[in-house]
TrEMBL record:
Belongs to the short-chain dehydrogenases/reductases (SDR) family. The keyword Oxidoreductase applies. Pfam families: adh_short_C2 (PF13561). Keywords: Oxidoreductase. InterPro entries: NAD(P)-bd_dom_sf, Sc_DH/Rdtase_CS, SDR_fam. It comes from Drosophila navojoa (Fruit fly). SUPFAM superfamilies: NAD(P)-binding Rossmann-fold domains. This is Dehydrogenase/reductase SDR family member 4.
Length: 252
């Protein structure tokens, strides 16, 4: 018996990188998984790849900042599978680099709208469905930058700190109902999103110098953590942020 058999999961921003790896792993572990992305083409390509593996997946376009898209995401999940057990909120953006107090107000608003507000709204809108099922859970994808801000990702780092706080607050609220809320805080993972941290030799050396394990992480390693957090193996874990960073320091 696969440990997520009979579960239904929604994973946002799940057609590439960490999100795609999470969707793939949850499906491999037995869940029916609904993937999404801002672009339908990306959804179609990801679905084709996952279905080649005979995985039970569905997908649709969803811009997490759009209320109608979020509504459709959950309504279509219920229409297709009849229930929702797991929400993984992975969508994030970082349209500019610089120190936190150098950030333009419009850029700040964009980062917090996608990274924090949308995560909050997704969880709130998923809650009526999660309440119907025993052992439901939510996972927010934060970052080690939420503990120790990256120099050129000031506003992004603060948004990821906010997700750690959201995890703790929501976990306390929902624990009496049996709904667990946890957080994944990846270190430097080799994805398109983080390529600026490793794409040239100097950047790569600087990144590796901060990682005791001496290598970047993989999306598959992050997916394994999430699969654990949403499984019954983690049934007594809520309100926690799991740092998967190859040993990088993570202290608030």
């Amino acid at each position: 018996m696969k440990r997520l058999a009979g579960k239904v999961a929604v994973v946002t921003a799940s057609t590439d990188g960490i999100g795609f790896a999470i969707a793939k792993r949850l499906a491999e572990d037995g869940a029916a998984v609904v993937i999404s992305s801002r672009k339908q083409k990306n959804v179609d390509n990801a679905l084709a790849e996952l279905r080649k593996l005979n995985l039970n997946v569905h997908g649709l376009k969803c811009h997490v900042s759009e209320a109608q898209d979020r509504k459709q995401l959950f309504e279509e999940t219920i229409s297709k599978y009849g229930k929702l057990n797991i929400l993984v909120s992975n969508a994030a953006t970082n349209p500019a680099v610089g120190g936190v107090l150098e950030c333009d107000e419009k850029v700040w608003d964009k980062i917090f709208d996608v990274n924090v507000k949308s995560s909050y709204l997704l969880a709130k809108e998923a809650l009526p469905y999660l309440r119907r099922e025993k052992g439901s859970s939510i996972v927010f994808v934060s970052s080690i930058a939420g503990y120790d801000a990256f120099e050129l990702l000031g506003a992004y780092s603060v948004s990821k700190t906010a997700l750690i706080g959201l995890t703790k607050a929501a976990a306390k609220d929902l624990a009496p109902e049996g709904i667990r809320v946890n957080c994944l805080a990846p270190g430097i993972i080799r994805t398109k999103f983080s390529k600026a941290l490793y794409e040239n030799e100097a950047a790569n050396e600087a990144a590796l110098s901060k990682i005791p394990m001496g290598r970047l992480g993989t999306s598959e390693e992050m997916a394994g953590v999430v699969s654990f957090l949403v499984s019954e193996d983690a049934g007594y874990i809520t309100g926690e942020s799991i740092v998967a960073s190859g040993g990088m320091s993570a202290r608030l």
